[in-house]
Q: What sequence folds into this?
């Protein structure tokens, strides 16, 4: 029961983080970049302000953030590629800022760009630092790592995961970026964040009572259903949490049916939504999915493979694992062999884990 209680806390916390206090007048693409207010630069020359005519990347990270550690070398590669762009990593949300400098020192050449710490006043919550508030909170960004690209006019041109930054950065550097379209997308995302926050506010009283029962989980599902019916655009954010609530209410068959409904309907043409949905279900801290749920997840990844015309090595790799988990070892072997073929000429070509998984599938272990 402890594991299930943890799941509800995580699920609702995720919804709260997603909305992340989006508010009227929040920071969106096209707005002037906020000021840089940092406590100290721990690597590279200090960057006092954004100079017109220059491009900047401001990335937010923390020493405890595992995805941040994975994105740091990627940022270093981009910084080397675009020497005319100033890359600045700002440490935020640190329980102990004394850990920042040793972390940066240990990373060495893997973290080869300007590094600074948020100017959090002594005795103040780390989430209340000026960089955390004026950038991340104002832009309704739920988590880290998050990067902001600042254009030559000193305006926010793009916001998102550093791992998804290569393409927009290349276009911005080349002068081919449509900032008006990006601003419209940013406004839409903040509107969605407002609606998700409203849903989170409805859910909180149910959570606050503690010792949740199956009926409480189903009440949360009902609130989610009503919110999605009113605003269908929030379903991609809500769906993974709704599935968790159904599972916690011991409604696994309903959860499997809902996944199938998404695959055949709202998520049918969205590779990202399909993969995020599947990954959420097979996360290590989740309870073991039932055979019906595993079959539904398999269908989701199969659909993602179809959308990408069976040409994405990472999706093929994921699909092979789902075949294997569903007891379809021959299909897993066949699909993993395809995944390995697709890595040729990509950054995954020398990744040994692809071959390791193939050997596992062949052995049946």
A:
């Amino acid at each position: 029961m402890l594991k299930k209680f943890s799941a509800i806390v995580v699920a609702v916390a995720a919804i709260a983080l997603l909305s992340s206090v989006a508010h009227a007048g929040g920071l969106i693409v096209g707005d002037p970049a906020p000021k840089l207010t940092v406590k100290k630069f721990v690597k590279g020359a200090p960057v006092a302000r954004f100079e017109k005519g220059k491009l900047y990347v401001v990335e937010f990270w923390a020493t405890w953030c595992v995805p941040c550690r994975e994105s740091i070398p990627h940022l270093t590669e981009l910084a080397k590629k675009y020497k005319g762009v100033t890359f600045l990593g700002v440490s935020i949300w640190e329980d102990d800022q004394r850990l920042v400098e040793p972390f940066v020192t240990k990373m060495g050449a893997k973290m080869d760009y300007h590094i600074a710490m948020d100017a959090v006043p002594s005795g103040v919550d780390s989430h209340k630092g000026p960089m955390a508030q004026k950038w991340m909170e104002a832009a309704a960004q739920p988590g880290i790592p998050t990067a902001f690209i600042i254009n030559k006019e000193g305006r926010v041109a793009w916001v998102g995961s550093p791992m998804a930054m290569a393409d927009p950065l290349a276009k911005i550097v080349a002068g081919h970026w449509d900032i008006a379209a990006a601003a419209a997308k940013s406004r839409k995302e903040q509107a969605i964040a407002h609606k998700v926050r409203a849903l989170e506010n409805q859910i909180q009283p149910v959570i606050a009572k503690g010792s949740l029962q199956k009926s409480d989980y189903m009440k949360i599902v009902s609130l989610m259903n009503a919110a999605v019916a009113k605003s269908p655009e929030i379903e991609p954010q809500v769906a993974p949490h709704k599935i968790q609530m159904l599972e916690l209410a011991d409604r696994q068959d309903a959860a499997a049916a809902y996944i199938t409904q998404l695959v055949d309907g709202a998520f049918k043409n969205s590779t990202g939504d399909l993969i995020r949905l599947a990954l959420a279900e097979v996360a290590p801290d989740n309870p073991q999915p039932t055979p019906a749920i595993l079959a539904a997840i398999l269908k989701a990844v199969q659909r993602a493979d179809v959308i990408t015309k069976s040409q994405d090595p990472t999706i093929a790799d994921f699909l092979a694992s789902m075949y294997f988990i569903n007891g379809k070892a021959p299909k897993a072997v066949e699909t993993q062999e395809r995944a390995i073929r697709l890595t040729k000429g990509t950054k995954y070509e020398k990744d040994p884990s692809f071959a390791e998984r193939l050997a596992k599938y062949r052995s049946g272990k």
About this structure: The longest strand covers residues 55-61. Residues 31-177 form a domain with the Glutaredoxin fold (CATH 3.40.30.10).
